[in-house]
Structures are given as structure tokens and as C-alpha cells.
Amino acid sequence: MGQFAYPRTARLLKPGDFAALRGSSKRIGVRHFLAEYSSNKQPTSRLGQAVSRRVSKRAVDRNRIKRLVRESYRHVLADLPCVDILLIARSSAVKTPSADLRADLASLWKKLATLKAAQGTGTMRG
Questions:
Q1: Which domain holds residue 77?
Q2: Which of 71, 67, 65 is closest to 88 using CA atoms?
Q3: What pLDDT is attached to residue 3?
Q4: What is the spatial distance between Cα 47 and Cα 49, in angstroms, rounded to a whole number?
Q5: Alpha-carbon distance 111 to 36, whole Å?
Q6: Do residues 71 and 6 touch, judged by C-beta distance below 8 A?
């Protein structure tokens, strides 16, 4: 696979994974998205998406948002800590231009990447 692949191991797939994440997670929000995250025991981070019909009745709008999220996530996957992420789109994302959504996602990934630095790499973990 290429450097920016989106393998199956980097996705939340099972309903149980989503339910566990909804039960015990922390939140980070940006203008058009909300991310719930929790640490995992996987070698990489995993992404799940929730773009409901409340966001838009039109499937084409929901799918556009999901494509943008996947594309953005592929490029930052290596920089993120080992966490499960549930990305929830807000209804404002539908009418927002793609470039603004990409910038919003970039700031969200940056916030999550700081968690990796905060975890530390020393030998004296608590």
C-alpha cells in the first residue's frame, strides 16, 4: 500500500466499537465538526464517521462530507496518536466550501496530534 493509504485497520467498523467510544470518550470541537476520541490498543488510530440525515437530507451532500474527511484523514494518519476517533459533522458543514472544510479538519487533526506529543516517550510513565 502507498504512503497515504486508508487501510481497513484504520477504520471503526463494528457497532460495538462505536458504542464503546460513545460511552467513554473525550471531545474536541472545531467549527464544522465534533470529534469524540478515546485511546485504543491498536497500532494505529481508527476513524469512524457520523454524518446523519439531520446534517442534510440529500445523500450527495453527506457523501461529499465523508469523502473530504476520509481524504484529509489519510494524509495525517501517521501523525495521529493511537486513538479511536468518531467524527461527527455539524449541519453547517453542508453549505461550507470544501476548502474551508479541509482547513477546519486540518486544525482538528493538529489538536489531536498534540495528544501524541503529550503522551511522551520517556521511561517514567505514570
A1: 8-117
A2: 65
A3: 75
A4: 7
A5: 12
A6: no
**Tell me: the pLDDT tens digits for 20-60?**
888 788 999 999 999 999 998 889 999 999 999 999 999 99
Query: In whole angstroms, what is the distance from residue 45 CA to residue 89 CA?
Result: 19
Q: pLDDT tens across 54-85, in order?
A: 999 999 999 999 999 999 999 999 999 999 99
**Sheet hosting strand 83-89, strand order edge to edge:** 26-29, 33-39, 83-89, 46-50
Counted domains in the chain = 1
Neighbours of 72 (CB within 10 A): 20
Residue 44: what are its φ and ψ, rounded to 5°?
Answer: -145, 170
Asked if residue 104 has pLDDT above 90, the reply is yes
**Over residues 111-118, mean pLDDT:** 81
68 lies in a domain?
Answer: yes
The CATH number given to whatever domain includes residue 41 is 3.30.230.10
